[in-house]
Fold this protein.
Amino acid sequence: MLRKIALLLIGVVIIACYALPYLFIGQIAAWTGSFLFWCLAGVAIVLLNAAAMAGFTEDDR
């Protein structure tokens, strides 16, 4: 169940990576808002990938 939720959240973060820069933070002149967003999105993807892959072993073939 955790794997499905993590994969679903990865999809949500990917959609947010396309939508947010153009819709909400595109009008911000400072680069810091965009930098903070991309840093947080990158950390979120790494953590969600770790959660999604935690249950895999070599015996799952």
